[in-house]
Amino acid sequence: MIKTRITEKFGIKYPIISAPMGPFYTTELAVAVSEAGGLGVVSHATLRGKNSVKDFKEQLDYVVEHTDKPFGLNVRVARVQTDHRVLLRKIPQWRNENPKLREQLIYGLTSAGGPRLAGKMWNEKAPDMYHFHVGPALWLVDKIVESGCEGIVATGTEGGGHQSYEGVTTLVLIQQVAQKYPDKLLVGCGGFASPEGVAAGLAMGADAIAMGTRFIASTQSEFRQNYKDLIIPATARDTMLTTGGFGPIRLLKNKYCLEHGKIMTKEEKIAQELSYEMDEYLKDLYAYEIVYTKGDVVDGAVPVGQTCGLIDSILNVDDIVSGYTKKAEVLLKKLCSNIS
Ligand SMILES: Cc1cc2nc3c(=O)[nH]c(=O)nc-3n(C[C@H](O)[C@H](O)[C@H](O)COP(=O)(O)O)c2cc1C
Questions:
Q1: Which atom of ligand 1 lies at the shortest distance from residue 302's CA?
Q2: Cβ of 3: how many Cβ atoms within 10 Å?
């Protein structure tokens, strides 16, 4: 049995978290991961639309109806994510209205922007919910710590989906954060999809490991079968960083990705956002929407991490959550037994 600060504080059995993967839904997946003894995370699935706040609430209600275990959620606080302020305000309100939700929703992860606004709202209105923020480089982790977050999700450049301009690897980042902020709760994310990875991440100082692509290729995830099927044969070289809605994004090199082209600089991206006509913005979003609405994995954007090079079968969530942890435990024990 591996105990960490996160398993103890969150009341979970295994130090495994499912990474948020909006605009895709991970509601069933969150239930399965939490039921398996890890921490499932509901994604900020909606990109736009009048119903996005109502939709988010329905996902949370679904989770508490289907499990009694702890779980978390993600809010992307990007400038162009127009519903984030309302969501940040509503989440504590929903928790206060529903004692079961309050008891189970213990982890609020913000990303794709700054942690300050969420910190201000949640510290006051949901002080019993752990606020974590995604940090892709040490200087940004400094800001997360300054803002008062309880924890950091250190996410390196090898990870799938939303990325940063920093290009720091998970390997280096986890060590940097563990050394500089030993008192902060730390989740390692990006590049994990094996028991060896889980063992290494914990050994470097992470209190839990979050995985995205590995969980897409699981029986219980609500990703379409043709999406899952692309991950199995893909190698670690089959992904590329390109320009997404909130900055760089790591996608599978399919037709859409190759035509969409190389990542823009931060300055170019900001200029693009400021000059965006609604039509252009909607066209970008459409590339993501057609993947889940129509299953179009050719003309649509397919976010995956370099971890697709480690994944060779679709697994049951239990085999990932408890199976990987137990194998990591064996690996760590073996390593310890080699020390004289
Ligand atoms: C399909 C997909 C969608 C993602 N969407 C989000 C998101 O909405 N918010 C976020 O913070 N990160 C998002 N990410 C990043 C993941 O939370 C996580 O950092 C990444 O999956 C880790 O790398 P891995 O896939 O190799 O495990 C997404 C990743 C994927 C694969």
A1: 1
A2: 10
